[in-house]
Design goal:
Structural class: alpha+beta
InterPro entries: Conjugation_ATPase_TraG, F-pilin_assembly_TraC, P-loop_NTPase, P-loop_TraG, TraG_N_Bacteroidetes
Strand content: 15-25%
Radius of gyration: 35 Å
Number of helices: 30
Pfam family, one: DUF3875
Number of strands: 27
Protein name: TraG family conjugative transposon ATPase
Organism: Fibrella aquatilis
Largest sheet: 14 strands, antiparallel
Distance between the termini: 71 Å
Number of domains: 3
Length: 831
């Protein structure tokens, strides 16, 4: 016969007080319920675990004798559900869509943690689990507690919560009726417990046929409730071997083995009863005296005497707080075979901690019942083991999931270390929260670490969120992305030389910043590197620029075709300005106009570099959201490279001052090559300190930390003014990572996290690479994983790039998007 019981008849909770929000049981126990927010897993240092543990101990110490603390962690399996109807996806291209499809149904573990403080109406040590309300057919509510008791309980709860809140490490949110009971906004806590779900609002009956079944799910319960189950020593943290190296120690809380590291459905209950230490000591003294009487009869008596003497010394000499503790892990699944697998894995996890796993065969239902929020006083003395408070709290789970959302409006698509997709916002949210003071960043990744791929992913999502990006590249890593995102790709080829037009102005009335930038460009074209300019020369060139635009405006007003470019500027300076110069009482001694024209002549008309500054195509670079300057073919050219870098500087500065309302990002790839040029190095130094004032961001990308160490500008300006850092695999530096720590001002915690990159990777996941994100003192490792279609868009592997290009030319009429999609499906070109 099926043994199911109606919850309505047996439910042990009498009410939730509308004023205090205390839970009142039918035994008249009163409970304050909280939701606890813990630090993110894999982002806590060794010393921080000691701090967290101290918070737990100090808070629990304020509780009077007889009070109970019940910590309850829900870990519920879920799968990622895409949001194809979101505004972001509706306005994005195929890459974002394919990534959503890629992560569809990706399993992950949801976590919610609750903390209950209970004042039992009668001492729990006088109850046994056999007296559970689940086994009684008639419960008679006891008289409600008087006002003094409620006031005292309120005061104790407030003191307890204040220690958590004031710590800055743990956060408590007080739960009220709207959180505990089902409503239109959310599933109540009691519905969550009886549905073994975080979303199902149903209060299911409990079925005791063939073991405990809750919400139609097979359950198993492992309990740790006897002192003999404990190992000799218990610590609050342990070394996580899979993320540690020979030279680094990666810590994890001891309780995480029964928390986030148990990757399936389970509820982890952690229970503490505040014991009367004096009463226990007096009892032990009596027992020791009795044992002494028989000590010569039994060796066991001698051992017992030594154990109890040591225990009493701890209480007396170190003022240790004595408690009773209990832990249990409830695992569950709809499929009994899967539940059996979970059972064996849980037993293995408990054994690995050094505890003896004990399956609750006969009291699983009473343990489940006593762990109903607000009913922990029914746990029974037979389920509580005597220990010290420090050891009892050392087994608590102290971490939770990464708190990054599935979507945020300025996020980059990454994964947490379990493979759950998330959108991470390094540039906007941290600035708003005061974590960083500017949006400058550095990316450091050796060859083969996935640096270029990671940057393609980053640039794609930033562009998709409306960021304007000017990117200086050496190596062609972004050509395909540029084509697919509708960007402007500027490079030098013999039959298509690089060209600009810094003189172009649609209204012929440029702002002062643009005219100053032009004057600086002309001075750089005229003077040799390091040759100083006189004040008269600076004034004269500024005046030439001013008079030039005035003349062009008057020409347009007269109906002439006034197109501004270097040619018209040169001709104005040659034909018109000498008279103005003479009228202004200028002299050859102060400004050699003929020499100026002679030096600039190669850039005019059909001369050697006549194409360089007369473009009619690249006249709108300042306004474009995505421009790539590919310098590989001219990086060693004595004329084209310096002029091109000046043009990039001038264009970005104009953009910085003129384009409003969007983040304007300048990214320098292979930065050491650009920094080798003094003027560009000084420009980057200026950018690192100034762009934040104009809603700008400077990004510096390099392969090796060594590239940065020898440059004083980098060390003193760029590193110090780049609070955002992306680090890829640094295992090549493991033996001398102290140098990296010193250069980047890393803490030991950050170093240990960085050295865990690509350690313990999940072989069952699609290909991915780890990346560490540092925001000030904050540091976490994420995975860079995308769909096969996005991979085809971002890859810089030469053989793959050539395969996609061949497929485009042979089968898709040079349609790169179609070729990428075909390549992702496994198509390849002929031959």
């Amino acid at each position: 016969m099926k043994k199911s019981r109606s919850l309505a008849d047996l439910f042990p909770i009498l009410c939730i007080d509308e004023v205090t929000h205390f839970i009142v049981s039918k035994n008249a126990d009163i409970t304050a319920a909280f939701e606890l927010t813990s630090p993110e897993i894999f982002a806590v240092a060794d010393g921080e675990y000691d701090t967290l543990h101290d918070i737990l101990v100090r808070a629990t110490k304020v509780l009077p004798v007889g009070y109970m603390v019940h910590k309850q962690d829900f870990f519920i399996e879920d799968v990622y559900t895409p949001t194809f109807g979101s505004d972001f996806l509706r306005t994005s291209n195929y890459v974002a869509w394919e990534n959503e499809r890629h992560f569809t149904d990706r399993p992950y573990l949801r976590h919610r943690c609750y903390l209950y403080v209970t004042r039992p109406a009668t001492p729990p040590l006088k109850r046994t689990s056999s007296q559970s309300s689940l086994l009684r057919r008639h419960l008679v509510p006891k008289h409600m507690l008087d006002a003094k008791t409620w006031a005292e309980f309120t005061d104790v709860v407030n003191q307890f919560a204040a220690i958590y809140q004031d710590s800055g490490k743990l956060k408590l949110k007080r739960l009220g009726p709207g959180d505990l009971l089902d409503n239109k906004e959310q599933t109540g806590l009691y519905q969550r417990y009886f549905s073994l779900s975080l979303d199902d609002p149903t209060l299911y009956d409990v079925d005791l046929t063939d073991g405990l079944h809750v919400a139609g799910q097979k359950t198993y319960t492992y309990a740790i409730s006897e002192l003999g189950d404990y190992p000799n020593e218990v610590y609050n943290s342990a070394r996580l071997e899979q993320f540690s190296t020979d030279s680094s120690h990666f810590p994890i809380s001891t309780g995480s083995a029964l928390g986030m590291l148990l990757p399936f459905n389970h509820i982890y209950n952690q229970v503490i009863l505040i014991e009367d230490g004096n009463a226990l000591t007096n009892q032990l003294v009596k027992e020791v005296k009795r044992h002494h009487s028989f000590a010569t009869w039994s060796k066991e008596n001698e051992v017992s005497i030594r154990s109890k003497d040591a225990f009493m010394e701890e209480v007396k000499d170190r003022n240790r707080r004595v408690v009773r503790s209990h832990y249990n892990v409830l695992v569950f699944h709809h499929d009994p075979d899967v539940a059996d697998t979970y059972r064996s894995q849980t037993a293995a996890a408990i054994s690995k901690l050094g505890f003896k796993p004990k399956l609750a065969n006969y009291d699983a239902e009473t343990l489940f019942w006593s762990c109903i929020p607000g009913n922990i006083a029914e746990i029974g003395a037979d389920n509580l083991a005597t220990c010290f408070l420090e050891e009892a709290t050392a087994l608590w789970n102290m971490e939770t999931n990464y708190r990054d959302d599935f979507f945020c409006k300025n996020g980059l698509l990454l994964t947490d270390r379990f493979g759950r997709p998330c959108m991470v916002d390094p540039f906007f949210g941290p600035m708003e929260r005061g974590i960083i003071a500017n949006r400058n960043f550095m990316v450091i990744g050796p060859s083969g670490s996935g640096k270029s791929f990671t940057m393609n992913n980053m640039v794609y999502y930033l562009l998709s969120h409306g960021v304007h990006i000017s990117l200086v590249d050496v190596g062609g890593s972004y050509k395909r992305l540029c084509a697919m995102m509708g960007g402007r790709y500027i490079t030098y080829e013999p039959d298509n030389p690089i060209e600009f037009n810094p003189f172009y102005s649609a209204d012929l009335d440029p702002d002062e910043e643009t005219k100053d930038a032009l004057a600086n460009l002309l001075m750089a074209l005229w003077k040799k590197d390091g040759e100083p300019a006189t004040k008269a020369e600076e004034v004269t060139i500024a005046n030439i620029v001013h008079e030039y635009y005035g003349t062009m405006r008057r020409a347009r007003q007269s109906g002439d075709d006034a197109f501004t470019c270097f040619d018209s500027f040169y001709e104005f300076t040659r034909d018109t300005y000498p008279a103005i110069f003479e009228q202004n009482m200028g002299s050859v001694k102060e400004f050699d106009l003929n020499n100026f024209l002679y030096v600039l002549r190669p850039f005019h008309a059909d001369n050697q570099y006549g194409y360089l500054l007369n473009s009619r195509r690249n006249i709108d670079l300042m306004e474009l959201p995505f421009v790539i300057y590919e310098l590989d073919n001219i990086k060693d050219h004595p004329v084209l490279f310096p002029i091109t870098t000046i043009m990039i500087m001038n264009t970005y500065v104009r953009k910085l001052f003129s384009v409003k309302g969007v983040l304007k990002m300048l990214i320098i790839e292979e930065a050491w090559k650009a920094l080798a040029k003094e003027n560009f190095a000084q420009f980057l130094k200026w950018c690192s300190k100034t762009v934040r004032k104009h809603y700008g961001s400077l990004g510096v990308v390099t392969q090796e930390v060594d590239d940065l160490v020898g440059n004083a500008i980098v060390k003193d300006a760029i590193i110090n003014n780049s609070p955002i850092k992306f680090l890829l695999d640094q295992h090549n530096y493991e033996k001398r990572f102290s140098e990296v720590m010193q250069t980047l001002s890393l803490s030991e915690k950050q170093a240990n996290i960085i050295l865990s990159i690509n350690k313990g990777k999940d072989a069952n996941r699609p290909a991915y690479n780890d990346m560490a994100l540092l925001l000030g003192d904050y540091c976490k490792v994420y995975g860079v994983e995308v769909s096969s279609t996005a991979y085809g868009t971002f890859t810089t592997e030469r053989s793959e790039v050539e395969a996609i290009n061949d497929l485009a030319s042979q089968h898709y009429g040079n349609d790169l998007e179609a070729a990428v999609k075909g390549w992702a499906r496994g198509e390849r070109a002929d031959g």
